[in-house]
Amino acid sequence: MNHWKTLLQNYLKAKCTRTSSSEYLVSDEVTSEKVSLALEQFMNSITSTNSKYDEFLKDSTVFTASEKRGFKLFNTEYNPFFPELSGADCQHCHSGLNFENDQYMNNGLDATFADEGRGKATQDPADNGKFKVTSLRNIALTAPYMHDGRFNTLEEVVEHYNSAINSIIYFRSCIRADSRERTFSY
Predict the structure, then answer these.
(1) pLDDT surpasses 70 at 166
(2) Exposed (0-12), middle (13-18) or buried (19+): which is 65, by Cβ within 10 Å?
C-alpha cells in the first residue's frame, strides 16, 4: 500500500536537493499533501507561455490561413439561426490567457453519472457531472482527454462536441440543448 511512497522517497534521496518542487518531498515522511504540493508546483512550471498564439498577441507573428479559420471558429459563438456562419463557441469555457475559466462545468459527456464529479465534494446534486474546465495550453501533449480519459485524440474530442453531446445536458452558454445540430469543420 505504501509502495509508491518508498519508491518516491528513494528516488528523491538519490536525485533531488531541497529546491523547487523537491523541497516539499525531501524528508523522512512522504505524505499525499506534500506530493500534491510538489506536483502542483511542477505543473505550474510546465505551462507554455511562448506559443505561436502568444506571439500573435504580441504582434510578433501572423497566423496562416488555416490558423485564422481555427481562431475564428474557436472565438465565434454558435447561432442556431445561422449555423453556416456559426463558430464552435469554445471561448465561453476556454477563455483568457490559459484557455480555461476556473469553473466546474458539465460538458455533456453523460446523461447519468458514474462519476459524480464536483457533486461528490459539494454534496449538491446540481454539481453532479461537473468537472474543472482544464486549460488548453499544451493540449496536443496531454492525451488522453476528459476527466476519465475516454478520448485518445483531439479528433475524438472535436467529434464529441460536434455530434455526441448528450442533448439533455448543457452548461451555461457553452453548450445548448440544440447542440446535436452543430457541425464543426476543422
Answers:
(1) no
(2) exposed
Q: What is the pLDDT of residues 69-100, one digit of tens each?
A: 999 999 999 888 888 888 888 998 999 989 99
Q: Residue 105: which H helix or E strand, with range?
A: strand 104-105
Cell of 81: 439561426
Cα–Cα distance between 90 and 75 in angstroms, integer? 6
Domain ranges of the chain: 3-45, 52-181
Per the DSSP assignment, residues forming a β-bridge with 104 are 132
pTM of the predicted protein model? 0.65
CB proximity list for 36: less than 8 A, separation 6 or greater: none
Superfamily (CATH) of domain 52-181? Cytochrome c-like domain (1.10.760.10)
Instruction: Tell me, rounded to whole angstroms, the distance of Cα 134 from its chain centroid.
Output: 2
Helices (H), the chain: 3-15, 32-45, 52-57, 65-75, 118-122, 154-159
Residue in this structure with the C-alpha cell 499544451, named with its chain if needed: 138
